[in-house]
Amino acid sequence: MSAEPLASASFGHPGSLLDGSDLRRILDFLGDCEGLRNLVDFRQAVTESLARRLGYRTTTFFVAPTFAGLTADQAPVTTGRATRMVPSYVEEFHRNDPLVDVNFWVRQSRPRPMSLDELTGAMGPSHRRYLETFLFRNRIHAKVVIPLVPGGMTAAGGCAGIGLLAEEPGAFGPRDLAIARELHRHLTNLFRHHTAEVTGPLIMPTLSPRQRDVAELVAQGKSNKEIAQVLYVGVDTVKKHLTQVLRLTGCSNRTELAIKYGAGPRVSG
Asked: What is the pTM of this model?
């Protein structure tokens, strides 16, 4: 399978905010992201070229089986200030990030790039705590997420979120969102190509030793009671570990976990 060539891709529309210089830089960016061997190389190329071609120097690239489980990717590809922010984000603060809250996205007829500024009036207390205790303390005041969801927001099979972050409030204006829309359109097709070639789990997040034991025993077809006997723990303890494993892997049930975990881990980049 080969990705659709982008060299002759059409950009923009009448009245577009983008000028010829913008479109040339987008075309150069897409050229950097074509013809790569695998998803690992694709993720790396995207983040590097966002900085080199388009000037977005603080970025993240998360991948997961579903958009709801996007932050189960505990080793996203990052650049700039985002690199040192990721550990605390994946451990705690992702829970309140409005730009990975599926409830905001499913209201859209089609997934599209979205900025924090667009969600200001719809944020709840937990979202505002995320801004104040995480983003602002890390001197980040603007953020855009570009969703790559070939099958739709609630579908399984491979989703991604590319984050653009900046220190200055209002850093991402209409022109940046227009660029993000062009990237979204073409990168979704390239991402679909790479995920179609993946065999085994799309990502294998970092699990604790006990969580890994539970996942391996589920993949062997053992029941919660049998797992409890093997690990010398209570059934309720097994259930708690399994709940966490399902969340981290983005699996909706133990059957999906058994299929994905049993296929063996892969490097997500």
From this structure: 0.73
Q: What is the mean pLDDT of each run of 10 residues along the chain (269 residues)?
A: 44 70 96 91 95 97 85 84 90 89 78 91 92 96 95 77 96 95 95 77 66 87 91 91 81 78 46
- Degrees to nearest 5, angle at CA 204 with 201 and 210: 125
Structure tokens of 168? 């200055």
Name which of 243, 61, 65 is nearest 153 in CA terms: 65
78, containing H or E segment:
strand 77-79
Q: Are 267 and 40 in contact (CB under 8 A)?
A: yes
Contact 72, 248 (CB under 8 A): yes
Residue keyed to tokens 């303390």:
137
For residue 75, which of 89, 96, 56 has the smallest C-alpha distance? 89
- 165, β-bridge pairs: 143
HSE toward the beta carbon, residue 120, CA cutoff 13 A: 7
**Which amino acid, 112?**
R
